[in-house]
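Quiz preparation item.
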């Protein structure tokens, strides 16, 4: 339930904002903004919410959390009206629209319109001629975009006769003001941002996320158990070589006595392959299962940590009393990973305090070169093979340790066409010694002052780096 017109009027009369100064502006979410005001030694936090069925304006005693990433409208308002004086603050007739006249000086006047309509709430900043400078929600179909003229509702004094149609909700005796009661009421009852409704959303999000992660963990454990008998593949390969002379031509099976258990067993063969090739296939499966068993142990550890983090996130939400903070936590934790904007392309690794960036294709290579590395950063790339660029970020007065150089080199090989090669040559140099190839493909550079490095790809090192990367994503 939104504030009605007489409730808005009651709140405005209690706020007494004329002559106040806007000290700061915080926008915790897309539909909520708060002004920190100061007057005669007293600070007030004015909360404006435009959420459907919960739009309101009132003083709040709750701490307003900042958004992880500064939002557009907040940054705009800070650039224009932070530090401004509130000359007037009133409701336009009985319309649910509030106008706040602001000034930085006698020559710079702004009109801030706060429209508290249930389905079309908005906060719009205009100049003194009501030309829109920007708005919380840009709505071209309503001409609520920069450069358009905002037409406020007409003040109709005849509507004052209808005041009796609207009632102010009763204030329980434990509250000192209508503002205080409204702040409490919406925190507990508003359909969109009440604590109760947000906890319900959190429970639904938690149950869905938990069931998905538990299913993934269960599948990993089941797969790991299937790899626990990896040694049987090696043993079957040994039996094929030991008793292969007993196999009939084009036979699909080897029937023999297991020299370890003394039991008769049957081993499946591929008749289109020689005995040596069949044995090699079993040995290959053994190595694959053994390697998979070790990797799955790591994946299971990561999955268990993700479940633990989910549990702590849910408990943090349950223990939070401020619904604005709950809404922010819920929005952050339930945002799909593909919608989270990365600060840079490619992958990144932090190893013993050293920061490594990896581009995996021409676009990522080019973007990293243009915007995310500097002249003293180290660049690595495989010789004679196309692939990704790897950068080690420079640390002042420090030389890159050999271990970090080998980590970066292995990543450069792994994200190149040389991945399956036995030994690979790489060259490395500082970014300042790279020159773009004239008329060359995107991202192509020609190095100078380069040094050579020859390595054999180290799977253990890559696995360690992968573990570090996955843990950083939890």
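Solution:
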């Amino acid at each position: 339930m939104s504030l009605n017109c007489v409730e808005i009027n009651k709140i405005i009369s209690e706020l007494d904002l004329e002559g106040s100064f806007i000290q700061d502006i915080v926008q915790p979410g897309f539909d909520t903004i708060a002004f920190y005001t100061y007057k005669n030694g007293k600070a007030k936090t004015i909360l404006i919410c435009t959420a459907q069925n919960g739009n309101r304006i009132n003083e709040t005693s709750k701490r307003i959390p900042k958004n992880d990433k500064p939002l557009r409208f907040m940054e705009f308002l800070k650039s224009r009206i932070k530090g401004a004086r509130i000359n007037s603050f009133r409701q336009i007739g009985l319309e649910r629209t509030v106008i706040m006249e602001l000034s930085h000086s006698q020559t710079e006047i702004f009109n801030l319109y706060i429209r508290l309509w249930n389905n079309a709430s908005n906060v719009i900043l205009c100049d003194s001629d009501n030309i829109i400078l920007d708005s919380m929600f840009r709505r071209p179909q309503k001409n609520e975009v920069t450069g358009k003229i905002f037409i406020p509702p007409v003040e109709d004094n005849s509507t004052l006769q209808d005041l009796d149609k609207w009632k102010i909700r009763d204030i329980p005796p434990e509250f000192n003001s209508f503002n205080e009661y409204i702040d409490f009421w919406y925190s507990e009852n508003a359909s969109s941002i009440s604590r109760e409704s947000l906890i319900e959303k959190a429970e639904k999000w938690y149950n869905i996320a938990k069931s998905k992660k538990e299913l993934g963990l269960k599948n990993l454990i089941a797969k790991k158990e299937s790899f626990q008998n990896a040694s049987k593949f090696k043993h079957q390969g040994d039996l094929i070589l030991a008793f292969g002379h007993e196999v009939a031509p084009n036979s699909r099976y080897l029937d023999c006595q297991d020299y370890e258990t003394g039991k008769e067993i049957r081993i499946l063969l591929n008749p289109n392959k020689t005995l040596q090739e069949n044995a090699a296939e079993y040995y290959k499966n053994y190595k694959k299962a053994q390697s998979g068993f070790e990797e799955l142990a790591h994946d299971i550890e990561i999955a268990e940590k993700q479940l633990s983090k989910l549990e702590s996130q849910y408990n943090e939400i349950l223990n939070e009393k401020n619904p604005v903070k709950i809404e922010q936590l819920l929005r952050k934790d339930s945002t799909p990973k593909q919608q989270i904007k990365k600060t840079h392309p490619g992958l990144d690794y932090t190893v013993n305090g050293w920061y490594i960036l990896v581009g995996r294709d021409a676009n990522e290579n080019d973007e990293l070169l243009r915007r995310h590395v500097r002249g003293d950063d180290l660049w690595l790339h495989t010789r004679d093979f196309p692939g990704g660029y790897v950068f080690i970020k420079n640390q002042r007065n420090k030389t890159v340790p050999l271990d970090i150089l080998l980590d970066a080199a292995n990543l450069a090989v792994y994200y190149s066409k040389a991945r399956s090669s036995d030994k690979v040559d790489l060259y490395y140099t500082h970014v300042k010694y790279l020159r773009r190839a004239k008329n060359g493909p995107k991202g192509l550079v020609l190095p100078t002052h380069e040094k050579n490095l020859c390595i054999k790809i180290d799977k253990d090192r890559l696995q360690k780096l992968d573990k570090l990367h996955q843990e950083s994503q939890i």
